[in-house]
């Protein structure tokens, strides 16, 4: 590693021991390049625009940062992740649930077409901490007054280029 290259061990990040233990349990030992470049800035609360290929750890990078800013059970979501497809939204939500193990009672909901609107509505009514969804379904819940984004501290546009291409 050269002096200009960022540190790559997760232990170099300002994360509590419970977070580091969970990362070790998930077999995340060394950060990928996108994680090493983006995580320190995101943990500092700065805006980041990143681009990396599939399987490079982008979800873990933004996931750790957004979870560090979420207050479980506060009644309103603290983070919103928009994804272009329901398949990606489901994958992202599942990874966020795995990463959120050190935050007991963290509720992650997936809002996307092909899912039961009634189930989503009931989940939202009970309170969620992180919303992962497709733009159309999130917009629908907003328009119907079922989703309050007033407490959002973190917004992630995952694969924003694809969402723009899709319209």
N-to-C order of helices and strands? HHHEHEHEHEH
> Unreliable stretches, pLDDT < 50, 5 or more residues?
none
Largest sheet: 4 strands, parallel
Gap between N and C termini, in Å? 41 Å
Percent in helix: 40-55%
In terms of quaternary structure, the protein is single chain
Overall pLDDT? 92
- Count of alpha and pi helical runs: 7
Please describe the topology of this protein.
Layout: H1 17-25, H2 33-43, H3 58-68, E1 79-82, H4 86-99, E2 108-111, H5 117-125, E3 130-133, H6 135-143, E4 154-157, H7 160-166
Parallel strand pairs: 1-3, 1-4, 2-3
Helix pairs in contact: 2-3, 3-4
Describe the structure.
- The chain is built from seven helices and four strands.
- The protein is α/β, with parallel strands linked by helices and 167 residues long.
- A four-stranded parallel sheet has the order 2-3-1-4, sandwiched between helices.
- Helix 2 (33-43) packs parallel to helix 3 and helix 3 (58-68) crosses helix 4 (86-99).
Properties at a glance:
167 residues, alpha/beta, four-stranded parallel beta sheet, 7 helices, 42% helix
Summarize this, please?
The protein is α/β, with parallel strands linked by helices and 167 residues long. It has helices at residues 17-25, 33-43, 58-68, 86-99, 117-125, 135-143, 160-166; strands at 79-82, 108-111, 130-133, 154-157.
């Amino acid at each position: 590693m050269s002096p200009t290259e960022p540190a790559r061990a997760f232990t170099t990040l300002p994360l509590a021991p419970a977070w580091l233990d969970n990362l070790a349990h998930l077999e995340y030992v060394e950060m990928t390049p996108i994680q090493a470049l983006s995580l320190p800035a995101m943990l500092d609360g700065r805006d980041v625009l990143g681009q990396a290929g599939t399987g490079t750890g982008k979800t873990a990078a933004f996931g750790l940062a957004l979870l560090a800013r979420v207050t479980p059970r506060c009644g309103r979501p603290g983070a919103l992740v928009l994804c272009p497809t329901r398949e990606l939204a489901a994958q992202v939500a599942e990874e966020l649930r795995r990463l959120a193990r050190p935050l007991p009672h963290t509720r992650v909901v997936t809002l996307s077409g092909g899912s039961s609107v009634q189930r989503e509505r009931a989940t939202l009514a009970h309170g969620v901490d992180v919303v992962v969804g497709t733009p159309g379904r999130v917009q629908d819940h907003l328009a119907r007054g079922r989703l309050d984004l007033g407490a959002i501290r973190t917004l992630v546009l995952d694969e924003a280029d694809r969402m723009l291409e899709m319209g």
